[in-house]
Every structure is written in structure tokens, then in C-alpha cells.
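Structure in, sequence out. Go:
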């Protein structure tokens, strides 16, 4: 049994929720797909899939094995693609999606350096804070700021960013400084629409990890808007340091609950291809890894 081929078949069955759909995508017979899965389960001495007349779904063991297969296949394909692409010059149109604030604060200043190295690559940078469908919307690469990239995407970590609680001195003078995380419940907390925790802020400090339900009269889907609202004295925000560092440095904002912290968030380059990574994509990711190697806040 070709284990790599069997792993590819297994991933296709999970992602397409069935043997027939996987067989069609892989240009194999349904019987061939069935044999590959049976041989893989026999080799592993574990049942990987639940089978009913209507659908196929991974078992708990299968779900864990699927995640490992995705990453291993991506690494293997990237290794082979990297060898084959060494002699190819990056060129063509590279479509990139990134969050608005990060694109302005971090990516914008780096574009000139990349173009100096790779003048044959044309960059098309689209800024949006919503979670785009990379395949549907035709993006080669996306920058995601998250604690865990989606399992269906190939991810390479570029950096981390610290997350800060802060507010304007005028707001804190008028409403008081929170002493404990629970005090945030009595304050105006400006909400970010795409915050993974919803209306709960998770903090880590002297008492371990604490989750606090917060509320406020302002919510926005853009961090720059919330930073300016906080500077104007509307309330407390939780935002990445690349967005609030300047305001903290010049005193327009000050840290709240400095002995507590929101866990840092990773910044990832994500892409969808497991079979071949184009030189233009690889070169841009490598460039970002080097350019963001030094902490930038």
C-alpha cells in the first residue's frame, strides 16, 4: 500500500463527505477509494470513518488523523514543489487578502522592499476584516490574525502580536481605573465585531485565566475606528499593539489592568494549495517571515 496515496484518498473522502465524491475528484473508481480506506484502517488498526447510507464522517480517531494528514501532505508537497520551483523566477499577479488595520500598519510599508527583489510579480492587495473564501474569491494568499488557523488551510506563522487593554486618560479619570478583571463589567467596553470571544474578554494574570462578560454602547468591525473612539473617551478597548502602540507611547491611551494580559495572537500566512505552491506565493511568504522576524508590537 502506498501510504501517502492512501492518506490523500482519506483526506478527499473526509473533505467531500463521501466515497463517490472523492472518487470523482481523484479520478478513481469508488471501489478503488473503498479499498484504499480499508487498507489504511487495517494498517492503523483503527476505524477512521463512520459510514451510513446517507453520509460518511470521520470518527474521533479519524478526525485527529485527518488533521495530521493535512499537515504532513502539505509539508511533503511543499518540499517537492520547493525543489521543482528553485529554478523558477517568481512572476505574475499575486492576489493577497489581509485585515484592514494590519494591511495599513504592517504590510503597506513592506511592499516596496518585496517589489525591489521581485519586480516581475504584480501585487494586488485587498484589505477586509471579514473572513474571505480564498477559493471562491480567487486569492493566492491571505494574512490571518488568529489563535488557530482553519484546518482546511495551509498556514505558516509569521509573527505574534501582543493584545492590550487600554483607554484614554480622560475616560479613566471620569470612570475610574478597573482594579480586577471583573470590574470591566461596569465599564463601557468597545466591542470588535470579529472578536473570537464574542462579548467575553479572556485575560491571564495573578489568578490564572479569567473570562469577563463585557458590554458597551459602541461596536465596530474595524480596529482603527475603535482606537479613535477610545482616544475620544468612549470606553475601553482590547486591540493589538500594532494598532495602539503609537497612542500608548504618546499618552493618548494608557494600559488598563497592566498586571493582566490578553494572550498574544499569531499572525499567519495561509493558502489553499497542497499540490504546488507557486514561486510568487512562496517568495512573498519567505519575504514576510524575514521582514517580520523582529517584534514590531
Amino acid at each position: 500500500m502506498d501510504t501517502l496515496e492512501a492518506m490523500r484518498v482519506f483526506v478527499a473522502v473526509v473533505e467531500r463527505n463521501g466515497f463517490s465524491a472523492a472518487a470523482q475528484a481523484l479520478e478513481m473508481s469508488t471501489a478503488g477509494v473503498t479499498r484504499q480506506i480499508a487498507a489504511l484502517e487495517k494498517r492503523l488498526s483503527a476505524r477512521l470513518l463512520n459510514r451510513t447510507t446517507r453520509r460518511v464522517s470521520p470518527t474521533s480517531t479519524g478526525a485527529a488523523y485527518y488533521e495530521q494528514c493535512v499537515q504532513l501532505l502539505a509539508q511533503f508537497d511543499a518540499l517537492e514543489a520547493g525543489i521543482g520551483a528553485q529554478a523558477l523566477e517568481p512572476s505574475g499577479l499575486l492576489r493577497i487578502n489581509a485585515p484592514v488595520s494590519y494591511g495599513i500598519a504592517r504590510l503597506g510599508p513592506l511592499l516596496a522592499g518585496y517589489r525591489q527583489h521581485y519586480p516581475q510579480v504584480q501585487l494586488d492587495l485587498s484589505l477586509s476584516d471579514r473572513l474571505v473564501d480564498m477559493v471562491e474569491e480567487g486569492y493566492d494568499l491571505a494574512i490571518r490574525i488568529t489563535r488557530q488557523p482553519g484546518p482546511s488551510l495551509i498556514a505558516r506563522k509569521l509573527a505574534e502580536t501582543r493584545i492590550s487593554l487600554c483607554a484614554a486618560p480622560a475616560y479613566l479619570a471620569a470612570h475610574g481605573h478597573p482594579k480586577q478583571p471583573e470590574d470591566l463589567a461596569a465599564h463601557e467596553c468597545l466591542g470588535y465585531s470579529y472578536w473570537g470571544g464574542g462579548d467575553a474578554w479572556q485575560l491571564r494574570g495573578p489568578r490564572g485565566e479569567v473570562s469577563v462578560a463585557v458590554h458597551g454602547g459602541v461596536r465596530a468591525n474595524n480596529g482603527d475606528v475603535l482606537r479613535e473612539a477610545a482616544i475620544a473617551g468612549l470606553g475601553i478597548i482590547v486591540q493589538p499593539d500594532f494598532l495602539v502602540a503609537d497612542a500608548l507611547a504618546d499618552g493618548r491611551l494608557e494600559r488598563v489592568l497592566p498586571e493582566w494580559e490578553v494572550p498574544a495572537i499569531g499572525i499567519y500566512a495561509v493558502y489553499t494549495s497542497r499540490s504546488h505552491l507557486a514561486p510568487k506565493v512562496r517568495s512573498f511568504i519567505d519575504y514576510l517571515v524575514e521582514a517580520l522576524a523582529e517584534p514590531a508590537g
